């Protein structure tokens, strides 16, 4: 036989939650079996969740993952699914040095079969794998009903050489790679171009299976795909949703038959959805049903509130307006309109009496007095978070966080910051997109996203608008003193965001920035702001390390670690 | 000629501050030259400071470091010190892949001479070097006036194989290793045992030169040393102080002559001094002249205040007593006594009026009301920090941080947490040691530490006691509700600290902890507390990553980065 059916199980796992991840693998395996799949493939580190950071170092966790894989193989066989080849990611142990390994196993005929260990361990950007794992040192080709399937894990196809290069002359029929590839704007093209190169290198079609969902501060977009030997797109799974798709591979055909190709969202929808999915999964994996945040009437808190309503429904959003003596009437109205549009809870807590009580004791001036206002608001938001059991959201955007244009323990409080990686200009752009999407019929909660039923258009506000137009159009202000505007302290955002992108994202130094064409005064202003902000951020406690392992730097356990053994 | 004099320049550098580091290298080189040294050796990454994390990735910084090394070589020659061999650590660039390298260069005869690049790049615990640097691939033996000096950088001697192994048959006369080895309790013995093994391996004496001082959340203890071929101790520099020591190496002698051997502090003094040095250098490198903190009358804030007074003098410590309706008279008296002993500024800010103002609006119950008290205190401490320009200190210890027994944005506020890596039992132990040291004549500021003049005994309090005995002896309480005691929520600290050490420092899982002999109920309590605290700590904002580089995980610039190009 020279034809097999592969099921692409693009699922959302949870770090440390072996039970839930295993249950999901069984569920998708049953569905794949019912559709006569030969193979069902799951993402990198399916069983353990990904990325698991230092949880990998706990030996009892590795043992539990091993036991769980065996238990699943048994269950599948008992249910009559023994003949299915279930490809799952998990954790192994290096018998040489005792270090963990990032492993792919196959559950088949009641056994845990054929292990492949990830060869290239990424250690740049958000990745820390070289620190945790040891490298596999051999390539693996599975014989699945006569079809030769080479396997790889994520980074293995991003580097030249290694196990994929070793397969180039092995006449394989298919390259199957399982991935935990985090979302980045525009990364989809990079992945397909790379995969096309590897398909050519091994002279076979490639299946690229990616994880979906938010995990801690990463978002995985899914968008799994299959390319033919010549790079032609045969299948694409949707972005941001769990999915089970199928592809038939017939080794006797020169070109494989196309399967379903999901449409891609437009660029603004893509980024907006990534932010909402990150928040939604952060809430789900940490057990939060609702959120609270301060609503200032400004654009940042408005966009965050809209994202929150899209993630958990307006009825689970607790907005607090906290006007001071410097808040304009317009701001208060905009905050109220927003809450109405979102059908969010809304309360007003004026901070003036509290500010006066503090000032009677402390008599602060200047920045200290401005920070006091923001910190009183922080206390109120956290009080709501504690008493209601809801997650506090921080509303800072990337431009203001980069420049330190926020108050530590003030407006910066919160357990999750949905727009911390969006420049201010992008905040405006996504706000406009969200209103445009509403105009085209996308109500609150109507995003195409994990957990949303297909065809659910969401709840449309009576006004037809999500974010008050006034919040988008007016000049931004922190309103911490009379007549204050962001532009008093910062360059115009159009310019600022360009300098920040070059300085932060591309590590351009002063000379580089001037060569980029920015004027010297602006460069010096921005560099001073960013470096000062870096320093301000350290108002969160550091401390000395005096014993083998301290907290912080070297205890990198993920938060949503559900493993309790 | 077969005899050379080596100067061990154990200095305290500052990350990113090329000017200051270069000035210090020149100063010590002049002093070494005046004492007829042939070679003067400085620590790992002397010029750049260490660890520099992502600053290494900025090309303009690497260029500036290269220019500075050349400028120094020229200056040394112009001053008539061209014949001196000045061994300094710096940063280089890999001509193959453009990645930074951790480099050792020799300044000699006006040139930057003979580069050796670190081979083994540690990537465990606090180290991240594999992420940043590429590896050197050759060993280097310097011919210094006929004496064959093999060189290595830090981790190169911690791993078997590599450049040191390559020197085993090269008949070298001396192995010189420059280091940035962070302090850990009891690490001194580990270093000397390891160095003795390497001396035997290369059949030559070994010079182990270490950095001293605090940098971000690491403390380097210095304690450089020289061992003879047979492992005999020939020289030891003091811990926690800058130092210039000399050793003569005569290749015609079978055993080298001993030089000065500094005395070592006792174990409690060692840990206490490490904490004070960490704080002192954090202040110096971030430009803080004073500190502020809440003084509750309890042992944690008392020990932190004593450390602060030892770091910067009691006159630069601003203590704030913030009693509530639940604070005992004893606590208030203990706080006042402490301030008197330390000659610290002391003010009283009762929180009851502020608490009432909030409660009139919010009417909080239970934990939310308890947290409100702590957060009002946090606002007051930060107001003092902002208006006075002083560093806020967090007073949490490792036991309570591990168990989440603190309020986020409340007592946890501050820019530096001097005792965050000390278990509660150690807090008591060090407090007793500090009083005992005072009884033996060590006044405030009298520690043997970077920047303290030799023979300065410090200022003795009139009472002869630093920390009020009552703060040490009484049962610990957060005093957030009537009659509250830590033991209501936590196991007794003697037991708790043992379980925490096994769980956190040795990654023992539940089964391991029970096998360690701890009873099941205690193990479950502690695991639940620690895992919950891990979750609570994430009330600091995370957010999704949607672009090439975000903040947080992948912007790991060190704080005390003084480089502004």
Automatic annotation (TrEMBL), chains A, B:
EC number: 6.3.5.1
Keyword ATP-binding: yes
Binding-site residues for ATP, renumbered to this chain: 294-301, 395
GO-annotated cellular components: cytoplasm
Catalytic activity, reaction form: deamido-NAD(+) + L-glutamine + ATP + H2O = L-glutamate + AMP + diphosphate + NAD(+) + H(+)
Known pathway: Cofactor biosynthesis; NAD(+) biosynthesis; NAD(+) from deamido-NAD(+) (L-Gln route): step 1/1
CN hydrolase domain ranges (all copies): 4-251
This protein's UniProt keywords: ATP-binding, Ligase, NAD, Nucleotide-binding
Top-rank lineage group of the source organism: Bacteria
Single annotated GO MF: glutaminase activity
One Pfam short name: CN_hydrolase
Keyword Nucleotide-binding: yes
InterPro entries: C-N_Hydrolase, C-N_Hydrolase_sf, Gln-dep_NAD_synthase, NAD/GMP_synthase, NAD_synthase, Rossmann-like_a/b/a_fold
Residues engaged in binding L-glutamine: 124, 181, 187
GO biological process per UniProt: NAD+ biosynthetic process
CDD domains according to UniProt: GAT_Gln-NAD-synth, NAD_synthase
Residues forming the catalytic site: 44 (proton acceptor), 118 (for glutaminase activity), 154 (nucleophile)
Residues holding deamido-NAD(+): 371, 400, 536
Summary of the function given for this chain in its UniProt record: Catalyzes the ATP-dependent amidation of deamido-NAD to form NAD. Uses L-glutamine as a nitrogen source.
NCBIfam families from the UniProt entry: nadE, PRK13981.1
Family membership noted in the UniProt record: In the C-terminal section; belongs to the NAD synthetase family. Belongs to the NAD synthetase family.
The protein's name: Glutamine-dependent NAD(+) synthetase
């Amino acid at each position: 036989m020279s034809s097999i059916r592969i099921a692409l199980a693009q699922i959302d796992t949870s770090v440390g939650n072996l039970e839930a991840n295993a249950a999901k693998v069984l569920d998708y395996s049953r569905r794949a079996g019912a559709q006569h799949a030969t193979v069902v493939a799951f993402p990198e580190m399916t069983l353990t969740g990904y990325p698991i950071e230092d949880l990998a170092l706990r030996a009892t966790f590795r043992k539990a993952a091993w036991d769980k894989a065996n238990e699943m193989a048994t269950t599948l066989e008992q249910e009559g699914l023994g003949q299915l080849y279930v490809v799952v990611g998990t954790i192994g142990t290096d018998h040489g040095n005792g270090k963990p390994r990032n492993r792919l196993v196959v559950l088949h005929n009641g056994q845990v079969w054929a292990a492949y260990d990830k060869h290239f361990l990424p250690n740049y950007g958000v990745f820390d794998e070289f620190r945790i794992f040891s490298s596999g040192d051999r390539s693996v080709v599975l014989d699945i009903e006569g079809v030769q399937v080479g396997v790889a894990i994520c980074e293995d196809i991003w580097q030249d050489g290694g196990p994929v290069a070793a397969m180039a002359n092995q006449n394989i029929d298919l390259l199957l790679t399982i991935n935990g590839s985090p979302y980045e704007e525009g990364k989809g093209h990079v992945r397909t171009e790379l995969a096309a190169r590897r398909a050519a290198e091994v002279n076979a079609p490639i299946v690229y299976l990616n994880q979906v969902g938010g995990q801690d501060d990463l978002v995985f977009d899914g968008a799994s795909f299959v390319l033919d030997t010549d790079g032609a797109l045969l299948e694409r799974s949707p972005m941001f949703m769990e999915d089970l798709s199928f592809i038939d591979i017939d080794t006797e055909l020169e070109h494989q038959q196309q399967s379903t190709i999901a449409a891609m969202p437009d660029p603004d929808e893509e980024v907006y959805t990534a932010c909402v999915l990150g928040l939604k999964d952060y809430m789900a994996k940490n057990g939060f049903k609702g959120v609270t945040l301060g609503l200032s009437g400004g654009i940042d808190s408005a966009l965050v509130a809209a994202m929150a309503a899209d993630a958990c429904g307006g009825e689970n959003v607790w907005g607090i307006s906290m006007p001071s003596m410097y808040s304009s009437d317009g701001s208060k109205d905009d905050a109220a309109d927003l809450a109405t549009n979102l059908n969010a809870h809304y309360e007003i807590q004026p901070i003036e009496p509290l500010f006066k009580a503090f000032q009677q004791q402390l008599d602060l001036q200047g920045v200290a007095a401005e920070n006091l206002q923001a910190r009183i608001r922080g206390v109120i938001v956290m009080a709501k978070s504690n008493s209601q059991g809801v997650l506090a959201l921080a509303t800072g955007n990337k431009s203001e966080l980069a420049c330190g244009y926020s108050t530590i323990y003030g407006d910066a409080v919160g357990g999750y910051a949905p727009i911390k990686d969006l420049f201010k200009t992008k905040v405006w752009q996504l706000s406009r997109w969200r209103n445009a999407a509403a105009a085209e019929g996308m109500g609150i909660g109507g995003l195409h996203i994990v957990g949303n039923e297909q065809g659910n258009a969401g709840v449309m506000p009576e006004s037809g608008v999500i974010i008050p137009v006034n919040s988008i159009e007016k000049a931004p202000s922190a309103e911490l003193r009379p007549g204050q505007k962001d532009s008093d302290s910062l360059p115009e955002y159009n310019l600022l965001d360009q300098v920040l992108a070059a300085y932060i994202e591309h590590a351009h130094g002063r000379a580089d920035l001037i060569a980029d064409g920015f004027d010297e005064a602006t460069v010096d202003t921005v560099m001073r702001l960013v470096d000062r902000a870096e320093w301000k951020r350290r108002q969160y406690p550091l401390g000395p390390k005096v014993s083998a392992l301290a907290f912080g730097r070297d205890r990198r356990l993920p938060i949503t670690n559900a493993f309790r053994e």
